[in-house]
Each structure stands twice: as structure tokens, then as C-alpha cells.
Give the backbone structure.
Amino acid sequence: MTALRPKIQQKLDGLAARVQELLAQAADPKVLERPERLAALNKELGLATPVVALYRDYQKLVQEIADCEAMAAGADRDFADLAAAELPDLRARLQPAIDGLVDALLAEDGDDRRDCIVEIRAGTGGEEAALFARDLCTLYQRYATRMGWSFEPMDATPAEQGGFKEIVFALRGRNVFAAMQFESGGHRVQRVPETEAKGRVHTSAATVAVLPEVEEVEIRIDDKDLRVDTYRSSGAGGQHVNKTESAVRITHIPTGTVVACQEERSQLKNRQRAMALLRSRIYDAQKRAVDAARAAERKEQVGSGDRSDRIRTYNFPQDRLSDHRINRNFSLAHVMEGKLDPVVQALQADARERRIESL
């Protein structure tokens, strides 16, 4: 029978014990008198309790299987036959339960529960690359709709033929980063451009960066380290465009990081969104620096990886999407409709194994 690995079991037992400890602390009258401590306890409980609940469900399922197996091997044939008939269904539920439990545990240690900010930039290929960047944006917007996430534009630099030189947007919902994190990297497209008279296949590229969105309290940014510029919006927006300086550009002087937002009519809202993007970029840079240090210690790459690497090829003539990290092909037509689930699930399964080993 498939079972949890000992390392995972040990971590879950520790988390279950931690929940009991937190519940006892939360009931302490002295803690109730300290709102900030109580808030911290409730936050930790809110994250750990769902994982422990899944662990209890898993333990109950394992016990049911053991009881059924014992009954199936018993002398009472009537009960044995009933138990034997029930076993296949119980066993079929075990591996999905383990996968869900492990995913929940790993999310506890990482950024999986976070919302994210996505940046798409056209690469080599001129206008065709800009059109591909637009198509990737449409793909993610459709996927977000299927997943019940919100899609919030932040900034865009249009190209001449309707594509984007660069586009930035936020995705918010349930476990957004858990799915979208695998999109970071180089995306290559092979297809016949609309402007190609001879029907020749062209190759162009775009890069995608997926940044976990972080709270203001997690990344402290001093106002004196910022230079804020306002300017008139240049994108779609009707009569409002070019009449007020609602667009915002923020430069973080210590790191040289520059962010911008012009999608809202309000300068204040644009500034808030630009600051969210700035926090995400700084957090991501810090996280990648830590990952790189760990990789150097272990002499192998761990974590986000190099964004310049080509992770995926979109071959339109052959209706094939190839993900080079797991060496698997998928139906390109389905994926472009926003049906990214099979790709994400395959990548999550691969990442699950590597993350378990790194616990």
C-alpha cells in the first residue's frame, strides 16, 4: 500500500503537535490580553490547521484500508466479500490524498498560497514576438477565468501591429503562485506570421517572469529610497488619457529597480499597484539570491532557475506544446484556449518530488 514517506510523516506529526500547542496558547488569558500576539497565533493556526485536517483525513483513510484488508482476510466470507469489494475504491483514493497532503505541506513552506504579478516581454522576433507576448497574455487571462482568479492589468507597452513589447498584470485568487510559478522563463514560438506571404515558419520568443506578491509588512521600503515620477497615460482609457498625470513610475534608488503602472484612472491606485510590483521584484531578487547560495552549497541548482533558459516551445504547425523541463508534449490548441491544467499538473508532480528531497 502506498504510504507517506517517513520524512513527510515526521514533519506532519510535528505540525499536528504545533497546532495543539497553538490552540492551548490561544486559550491562555494572558495571550488574550495581547492582541498582537493573538493575531500572530491565529495567523499561524490559519495556515497550519487545513494541513493538519488533511493529515487527519489521510490517517482515517489509512485506518479504513487496514480494517478492510483485515476483514477481507477473515473467516467470515460474507464480510470478507463486502470488504474486498470496497477495497479498490479506498485504495484508489489513497494516492490523490497523499498528493494533496504533500502539496499542502509544501505550500506551508513556500510561496504557493500567494497571489502573483506576471511580466511578459517580447524577445527576438520583432512584431511577431510582440504578438506572441499578447497571445501569452490572452492564454493566462483565459486560464485565470477557468480557475476563478481575478486578472488585473498594471502596465503595458503596445507594439505597432497590436501586440505588446511588455505587459504586466496581477493574478489573484486561490493558490495562484502554486500554478503560475512554472511559467517563469523563455517561451519560444514557431508559426507562420500573418504578414508572411510565402507561408514560411518563423521562430520568435518572449520571456515571462512570475513574481509572488508580498505584503507591505514583509518587505520594508523606505520612502527616502524612492523617486516617484508621474506622467500622462498612453494606453487605452478614453477621454481620461493624456489629460491628467495619473500614470506613476517609481525608482528604487538602492537597487535601481524601476516599476510603472498606468492602468487605473487614479494616480493613488496606480501608485499602490506600482508599489506592489516593486515589493514583489525586491522579494523575488532576495529569494533568488538565497536559492543561488543554497545551490552553490549543494553544487546543483535549486529553486527558481535561470529565467533566460528556454522552458517551452509552442509549435503551431504541428499543434504541439513542448515543455523542455519534463520532456513532455501537449495539445497546443487546448492550451491556447486556457486549458493549461495538464501542463501545470505535470510540472507540479515533477516539482513535488524535487521539493520533498530538499525538505
